[in-house]
Automatic annotation (TrEMBL):
It is found in: Cytoplasm; Nucleus. This is Signal transducer and activator of transcription. GO terms for biological process: cell surface receptor signaling pathway. Residues 698-732 are annotated as: Disordered. One of its GO terms (molecular function) is DNA-binding transcription activator activity, RNA polymerase II-specific. PANTHER family: SIGNAL TRANSDUCER AND ACTIVATOR OF TRANSCRIPTION (PTHR11801). Residues 704-731 have a biased composition (Polar residues). Keywords: Activator, Cytoplasm, DNA-binding, Nucleus, Phosphoprotein, SH2 domain, Transcription, Transcription regulation. Pfam families: SH2 (PF00017), STAT_alpha (PF01017), STAT_bind (PF02864), STAT_int (PF02865), STAT_linker (PF21354). Coiled coil: none annotated.
Length: 762
C-alpha cells in the first residue's frame, strides 16, 4: 500500500501533527491529491539516504529539479479540478505561484522539509516514532501541560497579590492619616471613640497584611515547586529525549532510520522556555512589588526569592546551551579540499527571539583531546584548532517556513589538518576529530549572555580514497558502540558479537537495500572469529575485539575481516544491488558448503558467492561434468568491480551456457532475464553491430540443453583450493578468441574497437 494510504489510517492526533508540519510549506490537501507523485519523487532519495551533507551539488540539483517539476505538476493538474472541486484548482494555481516566489532561490529548503514530512509519515506508519504509544513521550506532554497550568495559576495569583498589596498600601496610608488626626483630638470622649475605631482598623489591616504575606509565602513555595517540576521536565526533554535523538544520529550514520522528532523536541523546548521566562518575570514582579509599595514586609522574603531567581537563570542557561544542536551532521569520513555541509539549529530560538541579535556561529575542527577539554572545562580557544576550515562562519536566522532558527554551512572545506603523534599500530584512519560549533546568545535586552557550543559526531580525515575502508571501520565502531554519556570519543575495545552483527546488518541493508539472513550472520561470525567449521560457534556468547574486527589479517590473507566485508558491501551496492535485493545471490557461504549444496543438484545448477581470495569479488560456482563424466563443482574466477563496468553480472550469466538453473531451482532466464541487456540486431551508420560475450574455453563439458559444445580452461590461482577455478574471457559470439584479440579487448574501450579486426587478422 502507498505510504499516504497508510498514513490516513493513523490516529487523529497523529494526523494533526503531520498536518501541522505540512502546513508550514503547503496545504496538506496537496499531499492528498498528489500523493503518488510526491512519493515517487521523494521516497527514492529518502530511502537511498541522499543528504546534502554527503554530496551538496547533487542534492541541490535534485532539489532544483524537484521544485521545477513540482510547480509544473501543480500547473498541469490544476485544470483537472472543475465544478465542485474548483477550490482545489485555485489552491493548486496559487500554490504554484507561492512556491516559485518563496523557494526559487533555495529549493533545498522545500525539498528537505517535504522529505522530513514523508520521513515522519514513514516513522509513524512503521512504529519508529509513535509518540502517543510511547510512555516517556506521553509523560513529557503531561508534564508540560501540568507545568503550564501551574505557571498560569501562579501568574494569576501574582497579579491578585499585587492588587491586594496596592489595596493594602492605600488602607495603610489611610491608617497613618487617621492616626495623625487622632493625635489632634482634644475631646476625651471623641478621642476614646476614635481610638477604638483606630484599633479595629489597625487589627483589620494587620490581619490583611498577614494574609497577604502568607499568600506571598505560599506563592514563593509554588514557584519553587514549579522550578522543581521544570528541572524534571528538563531532564525528560534534554537529557532523555534529546540525548536519544543525538544517539540516533550516530546510529543513522550506520544506516538506521533517522527518527525525525526534532520538531517535537523543539515544541517541548519552547514550552519549557516559555514557562521559565514567565516564572522569571513573576519573581521580578514579586520583588518589584515589595520594593515599590511602602509597607512593612517580612525581612526573610529577599532570601526566599533570590535562590529561586538563580535557579531559573541556571535552568535557562542549561536549556539554551543544550538546545544548540547539529541538525545535519558533517560527513564522518572527510576528505581534505572537498566541499561539505552541516546545519546547526537553536531549538529555543524562535520563542526567545534570540535571532533578533543575529548571533554568529563559527566552526573549527578539534582533536579528540581538545574535544575532551571542551566538554570538561566548557572553554575553548580557536588558537588550539587542529586544522583550517574555509567558509566556517555563518549567522543564525529565523526560517519562517519551518519556524526554525538555524544556519546551514554549504561550502565548508577542510584545507589543513594537524595530526597527533601516533601510538603503536595506530594510523591516521584511527584518529578521530570533531567539528566544534560555537556561538553567543543574548536573551532579553542583553541581560543574559550565553555561550553555547556543540560537538559533531566523530570525523576521520583522509587525503586519499584508499583510506576510506579503514576510516569507515573507525566510524562504524564508534557509531554503533558509543555511550551517549562518554568522554569524547571513548569506545569499548570488545563488544558482544550480536551487537556488531546488528551493526553490520544495518549497514549492509542501508547500502544495498536488503539485509542479511541468519545464515549470512552465522557465516560472518565464523569468518570474523577465524573459525572454519560451519555452525560450530554460538554467536550469543562471543565477544569480538577491535583488533579482530579491523586490525588483524584473516588467516592466509593480507586483509582484515572489515576490509573483506566493506569490499563486498561496496561491490553489491554499486554493481549487484538488484540481484541481491531479489535474493538471487547467496553471497555469504563457505566454499565447502557451496560444493555440498551443488553436488545434490542437477548438472547446470549454479550459485553466486562472495570470493574468499579476492577483495570485492563474486564468483559463480556450478555443477558440471568432469572428464570422467561424473558431477564436478567448478568455480569461476571471481568478477571484480572493473569487470562489471564492461559487462553486468546478469549478462555474464546469460553468456555462459554452462549455467542453466539458479540454486533455487529457477531457470536463469526467469531469475535474471529482466536484467539482461538487449542488443539491437540492426546495423547503424553502415557498421556491423557487435557485442562482447563471456566465455570459459578449453575444458570439455557435458551437453546442456539448447547449447553448443564448449571447452573450458582450468586454472588454480589459489593453492588452498581443491575445486577447479575457471577463468573467463570476453569474445564476440561465434568467433574463437586468440590471446592477441583478448588483450586488445581488455585494452580498448568497447566503442573504439574496430568490428573488422578479425578480418584484418586474416
Amino acid at each position: 500500500m502507498a505510504l499516504w494510504g497508510q498514513t490516513v489510517k493513523l490516529p487523529g492526533e497523529v494526523m494533526m501533527t503531520i498536518k501541522q508540519h505540512y502546513n508550514e510549506v503547503m496545504p496538506i490537501e496537496i499531499r492528498h491529491f498528489l500523493a503518488p507523485w510526491l512519493e515517487d519523487h521523494i521516497l527514492p532519495t529518502m530511502q537511498a539516504n541522499v543528504q546534502m551533507d554527503y554530496d551538496p551539488q547533487h542534492y541541490e540539483q535534485l532539489a532544483s529539479n524537484f521544485l521545477s517539476d513540482f510547480i509544473l505538476e501543480l500547473e498541469t493538474r490544476a485544470p483537472d479540478f472543475t465544478g465542485t472541486n474548483v477550490t482545489v484548482q485555485l489552491c493548486f494555481t496559487e500554490m504554484a505561484k507561492k512556491l516559485r516566489q518563496r523557494f526559487q532561490h533555495d529549493p533545498t529548503q522545500l525539498f528537505s522539509h517535504l522529505t522530513r514530512c514523508l520521513q515522519m509519515e514513514w516513522n509513524f506508519v512503521n512504529g519508529c516514532a509513535m509518540p502517543y504509544q510511547n510512555a516517556e513521550i506521553v509523560e513529557v506532554n503531561e508534564k508540560l501541560h501540568t507545568l503550564t497550568t501551574m505557571v498560569a495559576a501562579n501568574e494569576e495569583e501574582n497579579r491578585q497579590l499585587k492588587l491586594d498589596y496596592e489595596r493594602f498600601s492605600l488602607e495603610y496610608h489611610d491608617l497613618i492619616k487617621t492616626t495623625t488626626y487622632v493625635k489632634t483630638i482634644t475631646n476625651p470622649q471623641e478621642l476614646e471613640q476614635n481610638k477604638l475605631q483606630l484599633g479595629e482598623q489597625q487589627k483589620r489591616l494587620n490581619d490583611f497584611l498577614n494574609a497577604i504575606q502568607n499568600r506571598q509565602l505560599t506563592l514563593i513555595g509554588k514557584i519553587k515547586e514549579v522550578i522543581d517540576q521544570m528541572q524534571h521536565a528538563h531532564e525528560l526533554i534534554m537529557v532523555k529525549q534529546l540525548r536519544l535523538w543525538k544517539a540516533n544520529q550516530g546510529l543513522a550514520g550506520n544506516g538506521e532510520p533517522l527518527i525525525n522528532n526534532l520538531d517535537t523536541i523543539q515544541q517541548w523546548c519552547e514550552t519549557l522556555a516559555d514557562n521559565l521566562w514567565n516564572t522569571k518575570t513573576q519573581i521580578q514582579i514579586l520583588s518589584k512589588t515589595r520594593q515599590t509599595i511602602n509597607v512593612p514586609i517580612d525581612p526573610n522574603l529577599p532570601d526566599l526569592l533570590e535562590p529561586s531567581k538563580k535557579e531559573i537563570i541556571n535552568l535557562l542557561v542549561k536549556l539554551v546551551t543544550a538546545s544548540f544542536v547539529i541538525e545535519k551532521q558533517p560527513p564522518q569520513v572527510m576528505k581534505t579540499n572537498t566541499r561539505f555541509t552541516a546545519t546547526v539549529r537553536l531549538l529555543v530560538g524562535p520563542k526567545l527571539n534570540i535571532q533578533m541579535n543575529s548571533p554568529s556561529v563559527r566552526v573549527s575542527i578539534v582533536s579528540e583531546s581538545q574535544a575532551q577539554h571542551v566538554q570538561q572545562s566548557n572553554q575553548y580557544s580557536e588558537a588550539l584548532a587542529s586544522g583550517e576550515i574555509l567558509n566556517n562562519s555563518g549567522t543564525l536566522e529565523y526560517q519562517q517556513a519551518t519556524n526554525q532558527v538555524s544556519v546551514s554551512f554549504r561550502n565548508m572545506q577542510l584545507k589543513k589538518i594537524k595530526r597527533a603523534e601516533k601510538k603503536g599500530t595506530e594510523s591516521v584512519m584511527d584518529e578521530k576529530f570533531a567539528l566544534l560549533f560555537q556561538s553567543k546568545f543574548q536573551i532579553g535586552s542583553g541581560e543574559l549572555v550565553i555561550t553555547a557550543w556543540a560537538l559533531s559526531l566523530p570525523v576521520v580525515v583522509i587525503v586519499h580514497g584508499n583510506q576510506e575502508p579503514q576510516s569507515w571501520a573507525t566510524i562504524t565502531w564508534d557509531n554503533a558502540f558509543a555511550d551517549p554519556t562518554r568522554i569524547p570519543f571513548q569506545v569499548p575495545d570488545k563488544v558482544p558479537w550480536p551487537r556488531l552483527a546488528t551493526a553490520l546488518n544495518t549497514k549492509f541493508k542501508a547500502a544495498t537495500g536488503r539485509g542479511l539472513t541468519d545464515q549470512n550472520m552465522q557465516f560472518l561470525c565464523e569468518k570474523a572469529f577465524r573459525h572454519g567449521s560451519p555452525g560450530a560457534l554460538n554467536q550469543n556468547e562471543m565477544y569480538i575485539s577491535w583488533a579482530q574486527f579491523c586490525k588483524e589479517p584473516l588467516p592466509d590473507r593480507t586483509y582484515t575481516f572489515w576490509e573483506w566485508f566493506y569490499a563486498v558491501m561496496k561491490l553489491t551496492r554499486e554493481h549487484l544491488r538488484n540481484p541481491w535485493q531479489d535474493g538471487l545471490i547467496i553471497g555469504f557461504i563457505h566454499k565447502k558448503q557451496a560444493e555440498d549444496m551443488l553436488m545434490k543438484c542437477p548438472i547446470g545448477t549454479f550459485l553466486l558467492r562472495f570470493s574468499d581470495s579476492e577483495l570485492g569479488g563474486v564468483t559463480i560456482a556450478w555443477v558440471g561434468e568432469g572428464s570422467d563424466q561424473q558431477p564436478q563443482i567448478f568455480m569461476l574466477q571471481p568478477f571484480l568491480a572493473k569487470d562489471f563496468s564492461i559487462h553486468s553480472l546478469p549478462d555474464h550469466i546469460a553468456d555462459l551456457p554452462q549455467l542453466v538453473t539458479l540454486h533455487l531451482d529457477v531457470p536463469k532466464e526467469r531469475a535474471f532475464g529482466k536484467y539482461f541487456t538487449a542488443f539491437p540486431s540492426q546495423a547503424t551508420n553502415g557498421y556491423v553491430r557487435r557485442r562482447l560475450v563471456t566465455q570459459v574455453p578449453d575444458v570439455p563439458m557435458g551437453s546442456y540443453p539448447n547449447t553448443p559444445s564448449h571447452s573450458m580452461s582450468i586454472q588454480s590461482p589459489d593453492h588452498t583450493r581443491d575445486t577447479p577455478s575457471i577463468s573467463s574471457s570476453y569474445g564476440q559470439p561465434g568467433i574463437a578468441l586468440g590471446n592477441e584479440l583478448g588483450m586488445m579487448l581488455d585494452e580498448f574501450e568497447l566503442g573504439m574497437f574496430p568490428t573488422n579486426y578479425q578480418n584484418q587478422q586474416n
